[in-house]
Amino acid sequence: MDPASPIPRPPGTPAPTPPLRDRLTIPVLASGGILMAVMQTVVVPLLPDLPRLTGASAATVSWMVTATLLSGAVLTPVLGRAGDMYGKRRVLTASLALMTLGSVMCALSSDIRVLIAARALQGAAASVVPLSISILRDELPPERRGSAVALMSSTVGIGAALGLPLAALVVQYADWHTMFWLTGALGALGVTATWWAVKESPVREPGRFDVLGALGLAAGLVCLLLGVSQGGTWGWGSGRVLGLFAAAAVVLALWWWQQLRVERPLVDLRLVTRPRVGLSHVAALLTGFAFYANTLVTAQLVQAPEATGYGLGLSIVATGMCLLPGGVTMLLFSPLSARISAARGPRITLAVGAAVIACGYALRIADSRDLWMIILGATVVATGTTLAYSALPTLILRAVPAGQTASANGVNVLMRTIGQAVSSAAVAVVLVHHSSPVAGVPIPTLHGYLLAFAMAGAVALAACAAALSIPGDAPSGGTRRARGAGRGARDEAMEGA
């Protein structure tokens, strides 16, 4: 026997236990995704008090959310492309480091200008999920990949459900800077764990980085999302908002033209226009819209004063607890999503998830007065979101080359982000137009909330239709040959009979 060849393992002998670093890869990546979602959520309970704490106006304080949204939308496809070219672990670690730096800056300052800049830095963490999914594709065997990708996709909802009550507890019982010291410490731990436990992926797509494409995409997205996020404040018919939308249309059209002509584009638009990829992005946008309305509307509904006749007057801590079962459900149902995708295909999983979201909103419309029904409806929506969000990256992984997985998943996450931004604006418009004064303060009516649920449910059904329109997996050449051989054998048997 060749001494260099491996010694065969006797039958029945268990496989050797993988090293600790390999066993921790999935938990470390998942914890990074949860931390990213927590970071995006923790500022929400602070928003009512930040004008007093910082001496800034409420409109200025709202930029602590807007800055993270804009930078995350811009940096996700850019950092995804950089990960494909220069190393996914390297870019992932840098994203977590920027998030940690932003937390430390928030912990050290009460100046609103510093806080907004810090939150913009934290937007880089939005690329954590697509980069981690690409690492899982490169490093895991196929039999483990599906469940790991499903878990990674679910971390967005899990972290959001955990972040709200955690932040509310800190704000209620400690100085608000403590919250950012806590997220900064967790971020530093995440950076260290990622560098130690995650291997650098050997899959690369070499070439020159498309700087012009990155700048064009950034300018177009900033104009688009700034107009969407500020339309309710500035007025949808105002010159600023209409000018931003016009600028976005022009810049993105020029960017599309440039991407089709450059040798190494930031986003491979020829790949995006394929039905399997393009329809997956459309479904991501619609699912992001439908998912975000659940968290946004539920939080406002249960905190509405009891004088409205439907509100429960809950505190922000109790509100977070109402959303917590949805986060637990997302954690528990991610393996089910992987099993459905393995058995029926990810597009069926996506369609089922979107249909479940619509059923959850039907429950919300049926009863939004009893707390247990509110929690049940929100949890059903979270369950559907788990199935849908877990299936989306699997669809992308099956449809794009290995060297473009991070950038393609980055675009998919971008579409979700745009869907969430549009959802926030649309829900705000509905609730503002269906409000009535309570103790001199305009409060949305129950009818307004029900209209928001109906709108989100209709969008979920549109996401289901988009999912069913995605072409299925074509059989491989080996499968076609096997089927052909089987048909030939059957024909011969029939002739012999």
Write a structural description:
The protein is mostly helical and 497 residues long. It has 20 helices and 2 strands. The protein has a two-stranded antiparallel sheet with strand order 1-2. Helix 14 runs antiparallel to helix 19 and helix 15 packs antiparallel against helix 16. It is globular, with a radius of gyration of 24 Å. Residues 1-6 and 474-497 have low confidence and may be disordered.
Which regions contain 5 or more consecutive residues with pLDDT less than 50?
1-6, 474-497
Average pLDDT confidence is 85
* Overall helicity: over 70%
Cα radius of gyration in angstroms: 24 Å
Proportion of residues in extended strands: under 5%
Pairing-aware structural class of the strands and helices?
Answer: mainly alpha
Largest sheet: 2 strands, antiparallel
- What oligomeric state do these chains adopt? single chain
Top keywords for this entry?
2% strand, disordered N terminus, mainly alpha, two-stranded antiparallel sheet, 497 residues, 20 helices
Quick overview of this protein structure:
By secondary structure, the chain is mostly helical.
Topology (elements, then pairings):
Elements: H1 20-23, H2 25-41, H3 50-54, H4 58-61, H5 63-86, H6 88-108, H7 112-122, H8 128-139, H9 142-173, H10 176-197, H11 211-234, H12 239-259, H13 269-272, H14 275-303, H15 316-344, H16 346-366, H17 371-399, H18 405-433, E1 435-438, E2 441-444, H19 446-469, H20 477-496
Antiparallel strand pairs: 1-2
Helix pairs in contact: 2-8, 2-9, 2-10, 5-6, 5-7, 5-11, 5-18, 6-7, 6-8, 6-10, 8-9, 8-18, 9-15, 9-17, 11-12, 11-18, 14-15, 14-16, 14-17, 14-18, 14-19, 15-16, 15-17, 16-17, 16-19, 17-18, 18-19
